[in-house]
Amino acid sequence: MLNGWISLRVKDPKRVAAWYTDRKMLELFGAREEIGARALGSSEYGPALILIPGDQLDRPASLQLHLHVSDVDAEYERLKSEGVEFEEPPRNMPWGWRHAYTKDPAGHTVELCSPLPEAPFKL
Q: Do 70 and 96 share a domain, yes or no?
């Protein structure tokens, strides 16, 4: 099995990383202070996202980060209570998963998702 992560260039890696870690969406794995980079992930699954200072994507919303959670509705309510704004309440998708969408400070789409009982595939 391969394990990997994605590297993203953002204007302020420290601020974007804090958005994820302060809300307990991802954990800080490490930092390279000399270049301002941050590594994020989870203790269960390992690293997921490396934030590097630089010019970010022209259309950051076109990048979708999927965060698998056990209960989308509970996580949606928890994050909403912390001030996270969502595009709409969680909803069931045609492919058998439940999703809620928000954006991180760099404008990337962040999806909270979990499979429904009838989902054709599960993680």
A: yes
Q: Which amino acid is at 90?
A: P
Strand 6-10 versus strand 46-53 pairing type: parallel
Residues 6+ apart with CB under 8 A from 47: 5, 29, 39, 40, 41
Q: Provide CB contacts within 8 A for 118, sequence distance 6+.
A: 96
Q: Give yes or no: residues 17 and 75 share one domain.
A: no
pTM above the 0.90 mark?
A: no
Percentages helix, strand, coil for the chain (3-state, rounded to 5) are 20, 40, 45
pLDDT tens for 74-110 read 999 999 999 999 999 999 999 999 999 999 999 999 9
Q: Domain span at residue 80?
A: 57-123
